[in-house]
Design a protein that fits this description.
It contains seven helices and three strands, in the order αβαβααβααα. It has a single domain, classed as TIM Barrel (Alpha-Beta Barrel). Helix 2 links the parallel strand 1 and strand 2. It is mainly α. The protein has a three-stranded parallel β-sheet. The structure holds NADP nicotinamide-adenine-dinucleotide phosphate.
Length: 194
């Protein structure tokens, strides 16, 4: 159907669960039932797990990388400082990074992000998105918002040119492992096979 032009893509969960196995074997896009045009995985300043294997593999195979939750579920905007302010039922109330000591430690990272954003004359959200966009051309962040003015703010990040010094500083501040707490509750990660 794809070659006949009747379908442009197929959604599939059939990617190797063990990505290191995928990297260690000669793998070509043809090994999948259908060539993958893109994968969608969490990627942001504070969630950088994909950098070691998945991003280079996508680049090598010509697979687009859609970065979900590029604002750290809103945390990297600096607008989430108190879990009590989140509405009842907000999933972030259950996320370890938004709780207790983890939250307090993670807020110190966001303070640094805020300072760098001020130096770059942009908002923390824009800097977080610009950073994702600088990582590689095959990466497309998809920030979520329910506010039109934030949609415009976020879209403007695509035109930002952040300095090499800022990029280096953010790489240090948000070095892998810098964020405190799991990104999802442990039982949720188990269900995802992570
Ligand atoms: N494939 C998957 O498994 C998966 C999992 C999770 C998410 N996703 C997708 O990824 C996309 C985004 O993820 P996400 O919404 O979880 O996280 P996100 O984009 O990292 O953060 C969204 C949060 O940030 C806030 N926000 C957005 N722009 C802002 C700004 N400029 N200033 C202040 N706050 C701002 C939003 O609140 P307001 O609405 O109040 O602006 C919302 O609470 C969505 O399309 C979602 O469907 C995919």
């Amino acid at each position: 159907m794809q070659t006949e032009g009747r379908r442009s893509y197929q959604r599939s969960q059939k990617v190797p669960r063990n990505t290191s196995a995928a990297v260690n074997q000669p793998l070509s896009a043809k090994q999948f039932d259908h060539p993958l045009s893109a994968v969608q995985i969490e990627y942001s300043l504070w969630t950088r797990d994909v950098e070691a294997e998945i991003l280079p593999l996508c680049e090598e195979l010509g697979i687009g990388f859609v970065a979900y939750s590029p604002l750290g579920c809103g945390f990297l905007t600096s607008k989430v400082g108190d879990i009590a302010a989140l509405r009842a039922g907000d999933a972030r109330r259950n996320m370890p990074r938004f709780q207790g000591d983890n939250l307090r430690r993670n807020l110190t990272l966001v303070e640094e992000l805020k300072a760098h954003a001020a130096a770059e004359n942009c908002t923390p959200a824009q800097l977080a998105l610009a950073w994702v966009l600088t990582r590689a051309p095959h990466i497309v962040p998809i920030p979520g918002t329910s506010h039109p003015h934030r949609l415009e703010e976020n879209a403007a990040a695509a035109a930002l040119k952040i300095s090499a010094d800022t990029e280096d500083a953010l790489l240090q501040v948000f070095a892998p492992g810098a964020a405190s707490g799991l990104r999802y509750p442990e039982n949720h990660l188990v269900r995802l096979g992570i």
